[in-house]
Amino acid sequence: PAPGYVVAVGDLEDEAGVADSLNALGVLSQQKNQLDEAMSYFTESLTMKKKTGDIKGTVYIQNNIANIYYNQNKLKEALKEFKASSKTFRRLNDRLGLAYCLYNIGGVSIELNRFDEAVKVLEESLEIRRKMQDLQDTGHCLWQLATALDGLGKSDKAIEKLNEAVEVLESVGLTEDVESCKILIQEIQKKM
Fold first, then answer.
1. pTM of the model
2. Is residue 101 a contact partner of residue 63, using CB atoms and an 8 Å limit?
3. 172 φ, ψ to 5°?
4. Strands in 64-185 per DSSP E
């Protein structure tokens, strides 16, 4: 751990506070692309959260660990952690956490060419996003879903989802994402 580690957590009396501090240090390390250091902080924080019985804290740290695996291109490990997190988010009835987790499972599944699995989880994530009226993430989910559908050779459905994504993303002013979706539509049309 970094030299500031002892200073950051050494004076904290309770294990939950130490675990939260370690998680925060992990997030900072991840933002600096210091992935091994971030993993060390997250792993130690996860151990402490489990000891304290903080299920919600545990699942969010587990999700952070999955993101580290993803950033390290350890896709199978990332998928395993995201799937475990999704089960816990379901049990906790944490719809927001579940939606993010399903979206991440979909993205990793696409990279592993598991398009059927990606479509299934992305459709569920999309349904949650729509119910939450979260337009930005609805648009991103539609975009990702279109990518999975294209991977299955369902070009018409992919274009349909991309057109829907364009409409939603335009409504929230995400012009760069809109342009990326339009480019993907053109690429799919060329293959048809």
1. 0.87
2. yes
3. -110, 10
4. none
